[in-house]
Amino acid sequence: MNTRILLLAASVGLLAGCPDDDTHSNNDSPPVSTDAAKQYELTVINLTVSQPLSPLAVLTHSSGYQLFQVGQPVSIALEKIAESGDNTDLLAEKDSNDNVTMSYSGTGVILPGSTDSLTLDIVGDDANQLSIASMLVNTNDGFVGETGIDLSTIAIGESYTMNMPVWDAGTEGNSETSASIPGPAAGGEGFNAARDDDDKVSFHPGVVSLDDGLTTSVLTASHRFLNPGARLSITRIK
User: Fold this and answer.
1) CB neighbour class for 13 (10 Å; exposed up to 12, middle 13-18, buried from 19)
2) What DSSP string runs through 220-236?
3) Distance CA 47, CA 65 (A)
4) Buried b (16+ CB within 10 A) or exposed e, 142-162
5) How many C-beta atoms surround the C-beta of residue 187 within 10 A?
6) pLDDT tens, position by position, 75-87
7) Is 68 exposed, middle or buried (0-12, 13-18, 19+ CB in 10 A)?
8) Confidence class of residue 123 from pLDDT cuts 50, 70 and 90?
9) C-alpha angle 7/10/13, rounded to 5°?
Protein backbone atom coordinates (compact mmCIF):
# COMPACT_ATOMS: atom_id res chain seq x y z
CA MET A 1 0.00 0.00 0.00
CA ASN A 2 1.31 3.45 -0.82
CA THR A 3 2.07 5.72 2.07
CA ARG A 4 2.32 9.44 2.41
CA ILE A 5 3.98 11.54 5.05
CA LEU A 6 2.19 14.53 6.52
CA LEU A 7 4.70 17.35 6.65
CA LEU A 8 4.76 20.52 8.73
CA ALA A 9 2.59 18.79 11.35
CA ALA A 10 3.08 16.82 14.52
CA SER A 11 4.86 13.57 13.86
CA VAL A 12 5.92 10.50 15.72
CA GLY A 13 7.13 11.12 19.29
CA LEU A 14 10.47 10.38 20.77
CA LEU A 15 10.90 6.69 21.54
CA ALA A 16 13.49 7.23 24.23
CA GLY A 17 14.67 4.38 26.39
CA CYS A 18 13.77 4.54 30.06
CA PRO A 19 16.45 2.94 32.21
CA ASP A 20 15.47 1.37 35.49
CA ASP A 21 16.04 3.33 38.68
CA ASP A 22 19.37 2.56 40.27
CA THR A 23 19.27 0.53 43.46
CA HIS A 24 21.99 0.64 46.08
CA SER A 25 22.74 -1.62 49.04
CA ASN A 26 24.11 -0.53 52.36
CA ASN A 27 27.44 -2.23 51.70
CA ASP A 28 30.51 -0.09 52.30
CA SER A 29 31.80 -1.01 48.84
CA PRO A 30 28.99 -1.35 46.30
CA PRO A 31 29.79 -3.67 43.41
CA VAL A 32 31.25 -2.10 40.29
CA SER A 33 29.05 -2.66 37.24
CA THR A 34 30.58 -3.07 33.80
CA ASP A 35 27.21 -2.14 32.31
CA ALA A 36 27.08 1.40 33.66
CA ALA A 37 24.67 3.56 31.69
CA LYS A 38 26.19 5.97 29.19
CA GLN A 39 24.25 8.99 28.02
CA TYR A 40 24.64 10.99 24.83
CA GLU A 41 22.93 14.03 23.35
CA LEU A 42 22.45 13.83 19.60
CA THR A 43 21.66 16.90 17.50
CA VAL A 44 20.97 17.13 13.77
CA ILE A 45 20.78 20.39 11.82
CA ASN A 46 19.20 20.56 8.38
CA LEU A 47 21.70 22.30 6.07
CA THR A 48 19.46 22.48 3.00
CA VAL A 49 17.59 25.51 1.72
CA SER A 50 14.22 23.98 0.83
CA GLN A 51 14.29 20.29 1.76
CA PRO A 52 12.50 19.35 5.01
CA LEU A 53 13.92 16.25 6.66
CA SER A 54 11.58 13.51 7.84
CA PRO A 55 11.62 12.48 11.53
CA LEU A 56 14.95 10.91 12.40
CA ALA A 57 15.41 7.19 12.85
CA VAL A 58 18.28 6.44 15.24
CA LEU A 59 19.48 2.96 16.19
CA THR A 60 22.12 1.85 18.68
CA HIS A 61 23.58 -1.54 17.91
CA SER A 62 26.52 -3.91 17.94
CA SER A 63 29.08 -4.29 15.17
CA GLY A 64 26.96 -7.05 13.67
CA TYR A 65 24.47 -4.55 12.25
CA GLN A 66 24.83 -2.28 9.22
CA LEU A 67 22.10 0.14 8.14
CA PHE A 68 23.31 0.40 4.55
CA GLN A 69 26.34 -0.15 2.36
CA VAL A 70 27.34 1.99 -0.61
CA GLY A 71 26.90 0.05 -3.83
CA GLN A 72 24.44 -2.41 -2.30
CA PRO A 73 20.60 -2.52 -2.15
CA VAL A 74 18.87 -1.05 0.89
CA SER A 75 16.50 -2.93 3.16
CA ILE A 76 12.75 -2.45 2.81
CA ALA A 77 12.79 -0.57 6.13
CA LEU A 78 15.32 1.95 4.81
CA GLU A 79 13.52 2.11 1.46
CA LYS A 80 10.39 3.25 3.31
CA ILE A 81 12.35 6.08 4.90
CA ALA A 82 14.03 7.08 1.64
CA GLU A 83 10.78 7.10 -0.36
CA SER A 84 8.18 8.24 2.18
CA GLY A 85 9.92 9.36 5.38
CA ASP A 86 8.20 6.58 7.32
CA ASN A 87 10.61 5.38 10.04
CA THR A 88 8.23 2.84 11.63
CA ASP A 89 9.78 -0.32 10.19
CA LEU A 90 13.34 0.77 10.89
CA LEU A 91 12.55 1.59 14.51
CA ALA A 92 10.94 -1.84 14.85
CA GLU A 93 14.28 -3.52 14.12
CA LYS A 94 14.95 -3.18 17.84
CA ASP A 95 12.48 -6.01 18.28
CA SER A 96 13.37 -8.06 15.20
CA ASN A 97 17.18 -7.86 15.04
CA ASP A 98 19.27 -9.14 17.95
CA ASN A 99 22.12 -6.77 17.03
CA VAL A 100 19.94 -3.67 17.52
CA THR A 101 19.56 -2.65 21.16
CA MET A 102 17.61 0.63 21.13
CA SER A 103 15.68 2.74 18.63
CA TYR A 104 14.76 6.39 18.84
CA SER A 105 12.50 8.53 16.67
CA GLY A 106 13.01 12.22 16.11
CA THR A 107 10.49 14.65 17.53
CA GLY A 108 9.18 15.66 14.10
CA VAL A 109 10.01 17.10 10.69
CA ILE A 110 13.24 19.14 10.63
CA LEU A 111 12.70 22.24 8.52
CA PRO A 112 15.60 23.82 6.59
CA GLY A 113 17.98 25.53 9.00
CA SER A 114 16.32 23.91 12.04
CA THR A 115 17.56 21.25 14.43
CA ASP A 116 16.28 18.26 16.36
CA SER A 117 17.89 16.80 19.49
CA LEU A 118 17.56 13.44 21.23
CA THR A 119 18.97 11.95 24.42
CA LEU A 120 20.31 8.41 24.14
CA ASP A 121 20.82 6.09 27.11
CA ILE A 122 23.03 3.07 26.47
CA VAL A 123 23.76 0.19 28.83
CA GLY A 124 26.44 -2.41 28.12
CA ASP A 125 29.45 -2.56 25.87
CA ASP A 126 27.82 -4.41 22.96
CA ALA A 127 25.74 -1.44 21.81
CA ASN A 128 28.41 1.15 21.14
CA GLN A 129 27.57 1.82 17.51
CA LEU A 130 24.98 4.19 16.10
CA SER A 131 23.18 4.48 12.77
CA ILE A 132 20.85 7.27 11.63
CA ALA A 133 18.67 8.12 8.63
CA SER A 134 16.19 10.79 7.47
CA MET A 135 14.55 11.52 4.10
CA LEU A 136 14.85 14.71 2.05
CA VAL A 137 11.13 14.78 1.44
CA ASN A 138 11.16 16.81 -1.79
CA THR A 139 13.03 14.02 -3.56
CA ASN A 140 12.13 10.59 -4.89
CA ASP A 141 14.41 8.53 -2.63
CA GLY A 142 17.09 10.82 -1.21
CA PHE A 143 18.17 10.51 2.40
CA VAL A 144 20.86 11.66 4.80
CA GLY A 145 22.38 9.03 7.01
CA GLU A 146 25.36 7.27 8.47
CA THR A 147 25.98 3.80 9.84
CA GLY A 148 28.40 2.29 12.33
CA ILE A 149 29.42 5.45 14.22
CA ASP A 150 31.62 4.27 17.11
CA LEU A 151 30.31 5.86 20.31
CA SER A 152 33.00 4.23 22.45
CA THR A 153 35.59 6.71 21.19
CA ILE A 154 33.73 9.70 22.69
CA ALA A 155 34.84 10.52 26.24
CA ILE A 156 32.58 12.12 28.83
CA GLY A 157 32.28 15.83 28.07
CA GLU A 158 33.57 15.44 24.51
CA SER A 159 31.68 15.80 21.24
CA TYR A 160 31.86 14.21 17.82
CA THR A 161 30.61 16.14 14.79
CA MET A 162 30.26 15.01 11.20
CA ASN A 163 28.58 16.18 8.03
CA MET A 164 26.10 13.71 6.57
CA PRO A 165 25.99 13.44 2.78
CA VAL A 166 22.80 12.99 0.80
CA TRP A 167 22.46 9.43 -0.46
CA ASP A 168 20.32 8.07 -3.28
CA ALA A 169 18.68 4.82 -2.17
CA GLY A 170 18.53 3.63 -5.78
CA THR A 171 15.02 2.27 -5.34
CA GLU A 172 13.07 4.85 -7.36
CA GLY A 173 14.05 6.74 -10.47
CA ASN A 174 14.60 10.48 -9.88
CA SER A 175 11.72 11.51 -12.09
CA GLU A 176 10.72 14.43 -9.81
CA THR A 177 7.12 14.17 -11.02
CA SER A 178 4.25 15.47 -8.91
CA ALA A 179 2.93 11.94 -8.46
CA SER A 180 6.23 10.62 -7.05
CA ILE A 181 7.37 13.35 -4.63
CA PRO A 182 5.71 12.99 -1.18
CA GLY A 183 6.85 16.32 0.28
CA PRO A 184 5.14 19.72 0.26
CA ALA A 185 6.43 20.45 -3.25
CA ALA A 186 3.97 17.90 -4.63
CA GLY A 187 2.17 15.77 -2.04
CA GLY A 188 2.51 12.73 -4.25
CA GLU A 189 3.16 9.06 -3.62
CA GLY A 190 5.45 7.84 -0.88
CA PHE A 191 6.64 4.25 -0.62
CA ASN A 192 6.17 1.97 -3.59
CA ALA A 193 7.44 -1.60 -3.35
CA ALA A 194 8.45 -1.64 -7.01
CA ARG A 195 12.11 -0.71 -7.55
CA ASP A 196 12.72 1.00 -10.89
CA ASP A 197 16.24 2.39 -10.46
CA ASP A 198 19.67 0.71 -10.21
CA ASP A 199 18.85 -0.67 -6.71
CA LYS A 200 22.07 0.34 -4.98
CA VAL A 201 23.07 3.15 -2.63
CA SER A 202 25.15 5.96 -4.14
CA PHE A 203 25.86 9.63 -3.63
CA HIS A 204 22.81 11.60 -4.70
CA PRO A 205 23.45 13.54 -7.94
CA GLY A 206 21.08 16.33 -6.89
CA VAL A 207 17.80 17.39 -8.42
CA VAL A 208 17.36 18.45 -12.03
CA SER A 209 14.43 20.79 -11.66
CA LEU A 210 11.89 22.43 -13.93
CA ASP A 211 14.15 25.48 -13.93
CA ASP A 212 16.94 23.27 -15.26
CA GLY A 213 14.86 22.11 -18.20
CA LEU A 214 13.28 18.93 -16.84
CA THR A 215 9.76 19.64 -18.05
CA THR A 216 8.17 16.80 -16.05
CA SER A 217 9.69 17.98 -12.74
CA VAL A 218 7.56 19.52 -10.00
CA LEU A 219 10.70 20.87 -8.32
CA THR A 220 12.28 24.29 -8.84
CA ALA A 221 15.76 25.68 -8.39
CA SER A 222 14.93 26.35 -4.73
CA HIS A 223 14.85 22.60 -4.10
CA ARG A 224 18.45 22.07 -5.14
CA PHE A 225 20.84 20.89 -2.45
CA LEU A 226 24.54 20.38 -2.02
CA ASN A 227 26.39 17.82 0.00
CA PRO A 228 26.38 17.69 2.95
CA GLY A 229 22.65 17.77 3.62
CA ALA A 230 22.81 17.72 7.42
CA ARG A 231 25.26 17.99 10.31
CA LEU A 232 25.28 15.49 13.16
CA SER A 233 26.74 16.23 16.59
CA ILE A 234 27.00 13.72 19.43
CA THR A 235 28.02 14.81 22.92
CA ARG A 236 28.64 12.31 25.70
CA ILE A 237 26.98 13.46 28.92
CA LYS A 238 27.97 10.55 31.19
Assistant:
1) exposed
2) -GGG---S--EEEEEEE
3) 28
4) bbbbbbebebeebeeeeebee
5) 16
6) 999 999 999 999 9
7) buried
8) confident
9) 120
Q: Report the pLDDT averaged over residues 10-33.
A: 37
Distance between CA atoms of residues 83 and 168, nearest Å: 10
Q: Are residues 151 and 55 in contact, defined by beta-carbon separation less than 8 angstroms?
A: no
Query: CA separation (Å) from 217 to 174, 182, 212?
Result: 9, 13, 9
pTM summary value: 0.84
Radius of gyration (C-alpha) of the chain in whole angstroms: 19
d(CA 128, CA 126): 6
Report which DSSP code applies to 210. Answer: G
Higher pLDDT, 102 or 30: 102
The average pLDDT across 193-215 equals 94
Among 236, 235, 237, 233, which residue's Cα sits nearest to residue 44?
Answer: 233
Check if the beta carbon of residue 188 is closer than 8 Å to that of residue 139. Answer: no
The winner for highest mean pLDDT among 118-127, 155-164, 181-190, 205-214 is 155-164
Stated length of the chain: 238
β-bridge mates for residue 59, sequence order: 103, 131
